[in-house]
Amino acid sequence: MSLITTVTAVFDMIIQGVQIEGTNYATIQDAFNTVEDGGVIKLHSTIFNEDVVLNRSVGVTLQGGFNSDFTDRSGSSEINGSITIRDGTLTVDGVTVY
Questions:
Q1: pLDDT 10s per residue in the chain (98 long)?
Q2: Phi/psi at 5 (nearest 5 deg)?
Q3: Residue 65, Cβ neighbours under 10 Å: how many?
Q4: 32 by DSSP, 3-state: which?
Q5: How would DSSP label each residue in 42-97?
Q6: Which of these, 11, 12, 79, lies nearest to 45 by C-alpha position?
Q7: Model's pTM, two decimal places?
């Protein structure tokens, strides 16, 4: 280019998705901290790097493998960290913990 040129770029940030009934959360732990008894925490089909502690007396399902808008479940999710259950119960579906 030999002339002054203006260039515009648009970037979409991909955020690891965690959702409970249409409400998005920044982390799995944030979702655990607010989920109600019998609730389902949905995870994008990606790798989550975090440790999670379940320390509330609730029964929770952690369901992985969702696409970006949580309308389809065709994959799985991975947690690169640990899940510690101090209180309550956890059902895991489509999630691998390393």
A1: 678 878 777 655 545 699 999 999 999 999 999 999 999 999 999 999 999 999 999 999 999 999 999 999 999 999 999 999 999 999 999 999 99
A2: -130, 135
A3: 18
A4: helix
A5: EEESSEE---EEEEEEEEEEEEEEE-TTSS-B-S-EEESS-EEEEEEEEEEESEEE
A6: 79
A7: 0.83
